[in-house]
Amino acid sequence: MDSSFVAMESPNSPMHIGNLLIYNPETAPGGFVRFKDILAFIESRMRLSTTIRQRLVRVPFDLDYPYWIEDPNFDLEYHVRHVALPKPGDWRQLCIQTARIHARPMDLTRPPWEFTVVEGLENVRDFPPGCFAMVTKVHHSAIDGMSGIDLMEALHTISPNTAPPNQPDDWKPEKVPGPIELLGKSYINAVVNPFKQAQVAAQAVPGVASAIKGLITRDFKLTSDIVPPRTRFNRSISAHRVVEGRSFPLADVKAIRALLPDAKINDVALAIVGGALNKYLSAKDDLPKSTMTAMAPISVRSEGEKGDMGNQVSAMIAPLGSHIADPAERLEYVFSQTKNSKAMTNAIGARTMTEVSKVNPLLYMALGAQLFSRVSVAHRLAMPFNTVVTNVPGPPVPIYSSGARMESMALSLICLTDGLGLAHVVQSYVDEAIISFTACRDIMPDPEFYAECLQESFDDMLAAAKAVDAGTVGKAGVKTSRATTLANKQVRKPAARKAATKKATPRKSTRKTAAKGSTAKRKPAKATAARITEESK
Questions:
Q1: Mind listing the pLDDT tens digit for each residue in 433-447?
Q2: Which of 3, 192, 266, 448 shows the smallest number of beta carbons within 10 Å?
Q3: Is 221 exposed, middle or buried (0-12, 13-18, 19+ CB in 10 A)?
Q4: CB 356, CB 204: distance < 8 Å
């Protein structure tokens, strides 16, 4: 799977993921952080991560998977950059700068990560003066969502005054292997690989049998709802990106489960995205009659693999209920569909599906990826899903870098490919939940509008949940906001009026929103994180 991200790399589809992180230096010594302080902090903690100083070495003609080696030419200052926003330094400018940084491919002859420190955030939402941002980029071949959190832990501390690690740094660079050596290794693997394929096939037999049994006993069913419709997001993409998102009080996201107590946080997030797509595409008279679907990654990383490089993920197809305007009905639909998808995935075995991907010849994957891109197959063939919605639980307590407190994991950034022009990440941090999205700029030129659709979808669902708590439930269902009442009569198009009258503006930070609209307070208890993680499964 790691190799597939290398094979899919192209100028229009750089295969890296990342974050936009906001830091407050008031907790640092002297209340100020210089760029050289950041460099020194990262250098002192590099030994805690296996990812930082390793680079890929590709085999000639992609005859075998790339190899990881310790980079003999590692240069920290190449990987950590420094820029500033021009005045007025607002949220929109920060999103544009982040999108530009994220759109640029990385040099894969170096360790595949880059951090860019961004200053000049004078008018970014309601963050205190003096805050700075960090835009992170790490190639997807090196990490998945969960190992990315481990990398974050290596470069952060749980207090502003944590001393540097006192163990010696025994890192040693390695010689870059030459073409003859690499071809020799590929020959050995070519001989061994058929035996590996046979072993994986044998391991997959019980999963296939379990899946057939599940179909017979109706533990799950094959449904047309997992067949995605064609949408504007499923065509060839350009090299340009837009990024945006919305931050919500985590307590309010959890409160939405009052609509369906058995639902998980992940079901709520999928239903919010489904509602946003309903509003966005309705405003453009382009809403499919059937539900759009999302690929939802599933981590199969064990505790023993927590710090390992590479990807340990599988996936399931999750219908989003985008054709349903009513928030309560949509959440119930999403819950029933994800329950069915989980049962199907569990029957086959998520780990088995991951292992199968590890024995596919890279040459065929590389040729397939190039053919898919160059022949514009995305315009001709239907994609197996319309978008991506991945859920990554973040730290439940404030964390620090160079002594500066992280105020927010403001955006999470994700890679796109031809046929996949829109993708979402659901990220939690302390008492906030952030739904971010990355899109092709040619496909979605109005990211502020879609971000407003996310906000409206969340607001509708929260209003419906509060109506349930207030006891306003009748035989006909939940009596919620006017939007929900009208939803059963016609497809709602609220955003069209807003788009015509004024530009959508970013909401205020969760810091104030939570204080005004929610009774929840910060709970930096580790038990809270355990509950969040469990509810997200």
A1: 999 999 999 999 999
A2: 192
A3: exposed
A4: yes
